[in-house]
């Protein structure tokens, strides 16, 4: 069957990343998260540190979307020699290039990086948003030691705000808008195993089977 790419956006603490790893293992396909940045750095020749700095800058900078220049992804790379070569927008463009190449090449799971938007015109993509109540996400963050600090509640809120800002900044879309995804699944109700199974059942119905032939 054709390559099937599963993109997962998720609330912090909802277990979306864990579900992605479970899918990767169960289906026998690769899992990509931070590897996207590593591959974009290698492809562009731009230091990986600059990609990470762009993320950190976005975390610290309030975004006034009615006034600030946004960088909705258009697919065009800015080549070396331009003053904009290492701009935030072009760093994202190189990550998007890697995401599109992966979708061409193989079945895989991609976590975050607005991959659903980058691949929105692809027919072989299943885009998923994994969510849960704030209280559940805080409990999961504590139980799984995803954050070691005093104010887990605020950390969860800040992380989700960053993810929302990142998505809005590079796509012009609302991160939590269900219309951006094929599936929106509540991991608090389904559990991690149930969330994985729901995604696999959707793939079976839509594509007639799973990437590993199950």
Walk me through this protein's architecture.
With 214 residues, the chain is of the alpha/beta class. The protein has a single domain, classed as P-loop containing nucleotide triphosphate hydrolases (Rossmann fold, 3-Layer(aba) Sandwich). The protein has helices at 16-27, 35-44, 48-60, 88-105, 115-118, 134-143, 152-171, 187-207, and strands at residues 5-10, 30-32, 108-111, 125-131, 183-186. A 5-stranded parallel beta sheet has the order 2-3-1-4-5, with helices on both faces.
In short:
The chain contains 8 helices and 5 strands, in the order βαβαααβαβααβα.
How would you state the average pLDDT, rounded?
Answer: 90
As a whole number of angstroms, the C-alpha radius of gyration is 17 Å
Based on the coordinates given, report the CATH architecture: 3-Layer(aba) Sandwich
Distance between the termini: 12 Å
Low-confidence stretches: 64-69
Approximately how much helix is present in the residues? 40-55%
- CATH homologous superfamily heading: P-loop containing nucleotide triphosphate hydrolases
Gross geometry: globular
Instruction: Tell me the number of strands.
Output: 5
What is the class in the CATH system?
Alpha Beta
Task: Please write out the topology.
Elements: E1 5-10, H1 16-27, E2 30-32, H2 35-44, H3 48-60, H4 88-105, E3 108-111, H5 115-118, E4 125-131, H6 134-143, H7 152-171, E5 183-186, H8 187-207
Helix pairs in contact: 1-8, 2-4, 6-7
């Amino acid at each position: 069957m054709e390559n099937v790419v599963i993109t997962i956006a998720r609330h912090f603490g909802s277990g979306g990343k864990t579900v992605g790893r479970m899918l990767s293992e169960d289906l026998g396909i690769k899992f990509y998260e931070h590897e996207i940045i590593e591959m974009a750095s290698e492809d562009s020749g731009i230091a990986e540190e600059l990609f990470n700095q762009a993320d950190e800058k976005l975390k610290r900078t309030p975004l006034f979307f009615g006034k600030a220049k946004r960088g909705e992804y258009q697919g065009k790379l800015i080549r070396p020699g331009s003053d904009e070569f290492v701009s935030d927008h072009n760093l994202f463009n190189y990550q998007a290039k890697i995401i599109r190449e992966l979708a061409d090449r193989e079945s895989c799971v991609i976590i975050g990086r607005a991959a659903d938007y980058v691949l929105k015109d692809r027919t072989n993509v299943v885009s998923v948003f994994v969510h849960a109540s704030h209280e559940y996400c805080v409990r999961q963050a504590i139980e799984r030691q995803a954050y070691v600090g005093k104010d887990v509640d605020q950390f969860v809120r800040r992380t989700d705000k960053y993810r929302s800002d990142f998505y809005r900044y590079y796509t012009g879309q609302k991160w939590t808008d269900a219309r951006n995804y094929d599936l929106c699944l509540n991991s608090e109700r389904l559990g991690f195993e149930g969330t994985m199974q729901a995604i696999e059942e959707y793939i079976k119905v839509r594509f007639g089977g799973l990437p590993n032939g199950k």
